[in-house]
Amino acid sequence: MGMETMAKKDREKKKQKKKQDKMDKKANRKDSNDKGKSLEDMMVYLDENGNLSPTPPDPRRMKAIDADSIQIGIPRKEDMPAEETLRTGKVRFFDKTKGYGFIDDAANRDSIFVHQNGLTEEIREGDKVSFETEKTAKGLNAVKVKRIV
Questions:
Q1: Cα separation, 62 vs 3, whole angstroms
Q2: Would you say 59 and 69 are in contact if contact means Cβ atoms under 8 Å apart?
Q3: Which residue of 12, 28, 103, 129 is most buried, as measured by CB atoms within 10 A?
Q4: Claim: this prediction has a pTM higher than 0.70
Q5: What does R_g of the chain's alpha carbons equal in angstroms?
Q6: Secondary structure string (H, E, C) spanning the chain
Q7: Tens digit of pLDDT for each residue in 92-125?
Q8: How far apart (Å, rounded) are the C-alpha atoms in residues 59 and 47?
Q9: What is the mean pLDDT of residues 21-35?
Q10: Cβ–Cβ < 8 Å for 93, 105
Q11: Minimal CA–CA distance to 104: which of 59, 63, 47, 145?
Q12: Under 8 Å CB-to-CB from 56, ≥6 apart: which residues?
């Protein structure tokens, strides 16, 4: 009989391992097979927290849920509360040469970007202003900016 090469031995080992893995998987499937088990053995329940449990939930711990209070989908625009559109704030920074600045919102102290295209009149640092916001890809922008006295 001729000498076996290392590559041939490795291939043979891999082949044996693959065969063994296949047999192990087959045995595992047979063990976890539900055939022949009673319905009760196969049942799984949800407890009051929504977790799977092998025992039925205790009816005393159940909470009544009003089916009408469950909202499915996104509310229609007219059902949503109207957003406060007009805001007020103080111009923290404005660079006339570059044409942009920032307004500190009086209500929540957010810093909101303002571009000269969003102005209805000229503004300076320290001015109190009223404005509306619009969402952009980079965040909120102040628009319709007016000085208030």
A1: 74
A2: no
A3: 103
A4: no
A5: 35
A6: CCCCCHHHHHHHHHHHHHHHHHHHHHHHHHHCCCCCCCHHHHCCEECCCCCEECCCCCHHHCCCCCHHHCCCCCCCHHHCCCCCCCEEEEEEEEECCCCEEEEEECCCCCEEEEEHHHECCCCCCCCEEEEEEEEECCEEEEEEEEECC
A7: 999 999 999 999 999 888 899 999 999 999 999 9
A8: 10
A9: 82
A10: no
A11: 145
A12: 45
Both tokens of 45, joined, read 């329940």
Q: Which amino acid is at 27?
A: A
Q: Which CATH superfamily is domain 87-147 in?
A: Nucleic acid-binding proteins (2.40.50.140)
Determine the residue type at 110.
D
Instruction: Count Cβ atoms within 10 A of the Cβ of residue 112 and give its class: 0-12 exposed, 13-18 middle, 19 or more buried.
Output: buried
Instruction: Please give the C-alpha separations between residue 73 and each of 65, 69, 79, in angstroms, as whole numbers.
Output: 18, 13, 13
Please provide the size of the chain in residues: 149
